[in-house]
Amino acid sequence: MRFAERMGRLTTAASFDMLARGRALEAKGRSIIHLGIGEPDFDTPAYIRRAADEALSAGHTHYGPAAGLPEFRQLIAATWRARRGLACEAANVVVTPGAKPVLFFAMLALLEPGDEVLIPSPAFPTYASVASFVGARVVNVPLDAARGFDLDLAALRARINSRSRMLVLNSPHNPTGAVLPRATLEGVAALAREHDLVVVSDEIYAGMVYEGESPSIATLPGMAERTVVVDGFSKTYAMTGWRLGFGVMAEPLARHMAALMNNSNSCTATFVQKAGEAALTGPQDAVAAMVAEFRARREVVLDGLHAIPGVTCDRPSGAFYAFPRVQGTGLASVELADRLLEEAGVVTLPGTGFGPEGEGYLRLSYANSPENLREGLSRMHRLLGSLVRA
Ligand code: PLP
Which fold has domain 5-44+285-389? Predict the structure, then answer.
């Protein structure tokens, strides 16, 4: 079989590979602590599961409109106006199976071969993979590690030219847990307006902020019409396997995205959308409890990391990731992650899985129980401690 040239430009995320390797070792009887995969370890709250059961029994088992059920789009628009201050109506919302299709469709709909996409890096690997897949050129903008992985506006400006078309933002950030300050967003918005850039703003972790605020760039003057907000239910409501996400965007783009949905998925599963309605209208205490638990675990992880010689880590402000610096071990990230898995039985991700700027870092997900986090960190301590001494 001969494959299209573009398939060579698509990559798959390291997190799934490392998970599979960890599971294979477990199947052989090894004890493995999983700090790799980025999904909440909580069950979907019971009231949401019940709503899906009821929707199935009530016959919500048929095709629905490609862009999502009208009442659900309306509810999302009203909820995001209230929660995030977005100026949006139902016509601006497209419901998709998870957040990833919004990224995929936005790039398919907006990028021509040769267009440049600016990606602050390290970054969620799907951005560069899909941008390359559609023929665009990826331009990495190194995040400023010395300033808590803030986006350096001068570095961004220096990389903008007449081919620049799109900028991808992600705050709270995977893999670092950093949150972009309002002043940075204002600077980015000014550049986007000046150079006519579309901003794809991945706000999937906006429900998980531990201090301060994580505003949406779409709320800044002149930005709603040039921003695609990527969001969904996977993280906030512990619904990764349900596949429920959505985008908020200008109406003409929403119509194109609906056409892409029509030609690919037809629609998002209707009973899943009904569960999504329940998620938004039901009691939010389960979400608050999860966020409180993540906040407490963040301290467990930071305490454990800071105790390891040669390791430092910024305090993440959101999401459920820590991104420790491990240069002190003298090993490349990939080799270190391999040794942690093989010798210590701890799954982590090499920072380079998020771009070359991730060299010298590991990504840890703290979506695991405090007991497992402590055990994982003490195993890391033993291995890394011996490397730093050697
Ligand atoms: N965006 C970021 C930054 C993520 O970390 C993830 C999942 O890990 C996604 C998007 C994908 O979300 P979904 O599972 O809803 O497609």
Answer: Aspartate Aminotransferase, domain 1 (3.90.1150)
